[in-house]
User: What shape does this take?
Amino acid sequence: MAKLTKNQKEVKGKFDSHKLYELPEACALLKDITYTKFDASVELHVNLGVDPRKANQMVRGVVTLPNGTGKVVRVLVLCTPDKVEEAKAAGADYVGLDEYIDKIKGGWTDIDVVICTPSVMAKVGPIGRILGPRGLMPNPKTGTVTMDIAGAVKAVKAGKIDFKVDKTGIVHTAIGKVSFTPEAINQNAKAVISEIIKLKPQTLKGTYLKAAAICTTMSPAIKLDVKTFTADK
Assistant: This one.
C-alpha cells in the first residue's frame, strides 16, 4: 500500500469519508482539505434515480450561479453582420460566422460557449460533430440559440451554466472556485440543486436524489446528506 503524503494525512484527519455532511458544513470543509497551489475548481456531483435512456427522464437544465463560476468564460458568437456590434458590445470574445466555422473545421475549439442566432443554424449544423462532443453545440434549450444575443452573452459572462445527466444517471458540474467563501460556494451549490429538484420527471417512480458529493479538482469527495435537500416529498 502506498504511503500517505503529509497533506493526505492531514486531510484524513479533518473529515470522515463515510459521514454524510449537510451542505453548509461541507462547503466550509472543502477549503480545509484542499492543498493545491492553484485556485482549484469546486465540483458538484448528484446521482439521480432516473433512466437517461428514456426521453421523459432526461434531466437537463440551465442555472445562473449567484456568485459566478470564478473563471473567465470565452464566448464565440456566430451571427449575421447585423448582430456583430450587439455581440461585441455585450462582451463576446469572438464574433463572426464563416471565418470561425472554417477555424473550427480546422480544429480550433479554444472557447467555452458558442452562441448563435436561429438564422445561422444551417451553417452551424455541419460542425456539430466537432462541437457536440465538447459540449459546445448551441441549443435553444440552454439559451444559446437566440435572437437576444446581448442577453445571452451577458448571462453566460455572469455565471450562467447548463448541465445534464450523463448516461449513468449522474449530473457533474463545476460551481465555483476554492478561493470563494464557504457561503458563496454554498449559494452556488444550492442554486444548482434547487434547479435539479425542479426538473424531477413527473413519470419517475422511486427515489430521485440518490446521492451527492462535493469536491475540488484534487480533493477527496465529501458526501452530502441528500435528505436535507427536501426533494423527495
In short: The beta strands are 41-48, 60-64, 75-78, 94-96, 113-116, 160-164, 170-177, 209-216, 222-224. Residues 9 and 49 are 34 Å apart (CA to CA).
